[in-house]
Write a structure and sequence with these properties.
Layout (H helix, E strand, L loop, with lengths): L4 E4 L2 E3 L6 E7 L6 H14 L3 E6 L2 H4 L2 H5 L12 H8 L3 H14 L2 E6 L2 H9 L5 E3 L7 H8 L5 E4 L5 H12 L5 E6 L14 H8 L5 E5 L5 H8 L4 E5 L17 H18 L11 H7 L1 E5 L14 E5 L10 H4 L3 E2 L14 E2 L1
Parallel strand pairs: 3-4, 3-10, 4-5, 6-7, 7-8, 8-9, 9-10
Antiparallel strand pairs: 1-2, 11-12, 13-14
Helix pairs in contact: 1-5, 1-11, 7-8, 10-11
Length: 352
Amino acid sequence: MSAEFELCPGRKIGGSNPCFIIAEIGQNHQGDIEIAKKMIRMAKDCGADCAKFQKSEIEHRFTKHALERPYTSPHAWGPTYGAHKHHLEFSHQQYRELQQYANDIGIFFTASGMDEMAVEFLHEINVPFFKVASADTNNIPYLDKTAKKGCPMVISSGMQSMETMHCVYQTVKKHNPNFTFLQCTSAYPLPIEHVNLSLIPEFQKEFPDIPIGYSGHETGIHVSVAAVALGAKVLERHVTLDKTWKGSDHAASLEPAELAELVRAIRTAEMAMGSPIKQMLPCEASCHSKLGKSVVARKPLQKGEILTLDMLTVKVAEPHGVRPENIFKLVGKKIKVDLEKDATITDAMING
């Protein structure tokens, strides 16, 4: 079983702890802080554990040339990529306001630090954990500096190889034992054939001492529920208030009714996982009483006879007797009583 650690105050992940569900608001707030607050409230009301944003210090994340290039996408919020990104970026004070709002309504709050300076700010406001976006997973200097801060880390694996993930593991582990990897494919929305849920058990084999989770960009909820059934201990899904809004992430996001149903389905799946010990349960007693079978006499038997297989059969009987799987153990044993045809054979009737 994967190691467990406290991802947020009072909330552990891994082991037998419930899956930690992150509602990824990202930049689906349209640059409007009131919409952002509504989305935090929605995440809380739907049962998510954490509302997450994306924080950039834009000039530290992008080159001057990248920010100046024309941006003509139908999702653009400005004529250049820089204008677009600035429109969607909240200030430090706005982040503090959102964090306080999340604290007030009782949901954990964090963000992906999209560059080293953003991580510095998130550390300053004391987020419970750092989320590492897939684009920074192979950014080894960034990982090294972030891990040294000692805060738990959730690290997505989109666009990376398993070889790279081993390098990431070694980089982070030497400074910080509390981190998790998320299986992720970075496409929005994600075609089902590229989800690769089979990588969850593969990650569990490769990194048995850390919890493994899933970051999904597919449409619908079924794949995410399957990820939890496969052992995902953290689940991240993008959320929106309206999939038709402008922005490239909305199509791969869950609206409120879907998020609420996802949370319910995950909690149901977790309950259904139950125990790995196979045994007859108390809830099966009624069915067993009516339909459970026992060994009975195929024909009349006389006291002292040595039992052979052709003297025995299996039927629903009253009372219950020797269980069917033990029928071969009766062969060669001596019966201690006279029995009529169809009579139940019990342990007490057998010598030896």
